[in-house]
Amino acid sequence: MNESPGVVDLLGVLAYAELSAFLRMAEDAADFAPTLADRAALGDLAVAEYRHFQLLRDKLAALGADPDEAMAPYVEALDGWHAQTRPGDWLQALVKAYVGIGIALDFYREAAKRLAPPIADLVDEVLADQGRSEFAVERVRAALAADPAAAGKLALWARRLVGEALSQGQRVAAARPELARLLVESMAEDDQAEIGRMFARLTEEHGRRMAALGI
Amino acid sequence: MNESPGVVDLLGVLAYAELSAFLRMAEDAADFAPTLADRAALGDLAVAEYRHFQLLRDKLAALGADPDEAMAPYVEALDGWHAQTRPGDWLQALVKAYVGIGIALDFYREAAKRLAPPIADLVDEVLADQGRSEFAVERVRAALAADPAAAGKLALWARRLVGEALSQGQRVAAARPELARLLVESMAEDDQAEIGRMFARLTEEHGRRMAALGI
């Protein structure tokens, strides 16, 4: 199963997602964190993303794949997502980190259902970090307790984040059918329907995260 | 010696230097790296800076100091340096990383001469990473081999980097005399002269680094 081109695709898209998340979170921490403690908290999160990137890069190399080549097909979509979702302030940056990490973890989970053990182990290692972004929940909830009127605007922002992610995701799924097939149960004609259901599951998970944020 | 306010000042300035270097290098990697391999190489360097930040933060906490309070007096000078030295392209970003890390390591070395063992150990751990920025030297030299005319402009850029660093450094030295005293041999009236000599040593080291870059 390791030799499946879909596996290299999957590791490639996750690797570039982690690398770009690291870079953009660090940028947001520098630009928007209101205190040094906040800057370091988002910095910690960014560095955790980088560790995931390193795991994925090593795994690609171990499979005999060139990490750069594996990531290359996804650079445009992921850079596009970041370009469309530049935060305007600290709260937006926190919601973006929380939403972005949440979506990525959902993808890891979908992938873990169908992957060979060595890659499932990697997924477990990444998922062990899933509590890290909880600090964002606390800070957003505290900010909204102080200013409840901000919730509406932040909810719109979160919808934009996920909307842009789904639009880039569907573009990638159409361009990389092997990757899409790896993520869904069936390999038959109803691939598109199954992919649609997977995106519906991701949207549902997103709704749960929004409720946690209180928006 | 650990209780000296100068030690907390020193760890504070180094901690914020590492934190801000991490954030800005990540930003430069996202904005300017021409290839994914370059992006990851500057990302590796940024994450090494973050590890130093964590070491310094832990050491401050172990000394009973609040890391945020210890860093606060240096935020303006270091953010000012970064604001005055935003790279315009990948080569400038590489030279900035190499020059910035070089200056920081010089400060660690000056500090190590006079510090109590637990802090000297920390300095040794940071200095163990000093080979990491060598990739910047290779890439700059390769770029200049391909385009020798670029050397003059890059030399001006390096001079600006160190000039702004010295100007911020002297401002900090004047505002934080305990820190300045920690870094120079004498504690007598000729502090200013001794500080001047230390800056001269730093400038000399900088010149050596410029020669390594071929500019």
Keywords, separated by commas or semicolons:
globular, 215 residues, 10 helices
What topology emerges from the helices and strands here?
2 copies of one chain form a homodimer.
Chain A: H1 5-32, H2 36-62, H3 67-71, H4 75-84, H5 90-112, H6 117-127, H7 134-146, H8 150-175, H9 177-183, H10 191-213
Helix pairs in contact in A: 1-2, 1-4, 1-5, 1-9, 2-6, 4-8, 5-6, 5-7, 5-8, 5-10, 8-9, 8-10
Give an overview of the whole structure.
2 copies of one chain form a homodimer. The first copy, chain A, is built from 10 helices and no strands. In chain A, helix 5 runs parallel beside helix 8. The model of chain A has no long low-confidence stretch (mean pLDDT 88). Chain A is 80% helix and 0% strand. The longest helix of chain A has 28 residues. In chain A, 44% of the residues are buried. At the A-B interface, helix 1, helix 2 and helix 3 of A face helix 1, helix 2 and helix 3 of B.
